């Protein structure tokens, strides 16, 4: 099973997971990291490193960060020097729901990453637009 | 001599929205990161450059290179943001002859040897001495995380 690591500023990662589990049930092989006010980026980078390794049981690890350019994403990118893993920024609930359903059936991390990416983008809809067209 | 519009100490260096806000506020055209360790790490240089606000150029220098670049800067329209992780880097570049009279401290993370000073700024004894020396030499040092926040003179946090 593909391992998942969510890294965000504050408790967004924790709460995002909690909300997703409300909908699709408890998940395994998933960790969250909260980067808080005053935390150290180098410590963050190491924590990400350790989690990527411990979550990988042969199918790889997918890291999801909150926003490109922020410390969670930067610290994740820096780990790409020494580790192989997939990572996406801009994590949202549609992505997680897609991911949890998909990884039960698919262990190819590149396929999963691509579908999760699409789900994240497609998850953003203009509700007024939908109503207007219905 | 270069037109330095902001000198900032933040050990997260360039990170998305916070840097974008400062760049907008100062109308900066260029970011110069000053750090001996980061300057040697090509991978980190690449990541930091990617995280920069669009349209702004980023250079990553060690102290000597930064001093040379800043002293010989030709572009009179350039507005430069200097970004360092620690106060020592700024002090050393001043000692190399670069004119800096104000520093804004935006973040120094917790670390062994450091104690929390104020908000997200933690400093060690030797970093405190560096700040005291800078203050003594007439450099204004304030703590300000984002442009909207009120700056706080660092001396107040030392009390």
In short:
Chain A: It is found in: Cytoplasm. The complex is a heterodimer of chains A (134) and B (159). With 134 residues, chain A is an alpha/beta fold.
Which features does this protein show?
heterodimer, A: 134 residues, alpha/beta, Rossmann fold, 4-stranded parallel beta sheet, 6 helices, 50% helix, 16% strand, globular, B: 159 residues, Fructose Permease, 7-stranded mixed beta sheet, two-stranded antiparallel sheet, 7 helices, 9 strands, 37% helix, sugar transport (chain B), kinase (chain B)
Write the layout of secondary structure elements.
The complex is a heterodimer of chains A (134) and B (159).
Chain A: E1 3-9, H1 12-24, E2 30-35, H2 41-55, E3 61-65, H3 71-78, E4 86-88, H4 93-102, H5 109-122, H6 127-133
Parallel strand pairs in A: 1-2, 1-3, 3-4
Helix pairs in contact in A: 1-4, 2-3, 4-5
Chain B: E1 4-10, H1 16-26, E2 30-34, H2 36-39, H3 42-50, E3 57-61, H4 63-71, E4 80-84, H5 87-95, E5 102-107, E6 115-118, E7 121-123, H6 125-136, E8 140-143, E9 152-153, H7 154-158
Helix pairs in contact in B: 4-5
Tell me about this structure.
The complex is a heterodimer of chains A (134) and B (159). Chain A is α/β, with parallel strands linked by helices. Chain A contains 6 helices and 4 strands; from the N terminus they run E-H-E-H-E-H-E-H-H-H. Chain A is globular. Chain A has one domain: Phosphotransferase system, mannose-type IIA component (Rossmann fold, 3-Layer(aba) Sandwich), CATH 3.40.50.510. A 4-stranded parallel β-sheet of chain A has the order 2-1-3-4, sandwiched between helices. The N and C termini of chain A lie far apart (39 Å). Chain B has a single domain (4-158), classed as Phosphotransferase system, sorbose subfamily IIB component (Fructose Permease). Chain B has helices at residues 16-26, 36-39, 42-50, 63-71, 87-95, 125-136, 154-158; strands at 4-10, 30-34, 57-61, 80-84, 102-107, 115-118, 121-123, 140-143, 152-153. In chain B, strand 8 (140-143) and strand 9 (152-153) form a beta hairpin. The interface between A and B is medium-sized, with 17 and 23 residues.
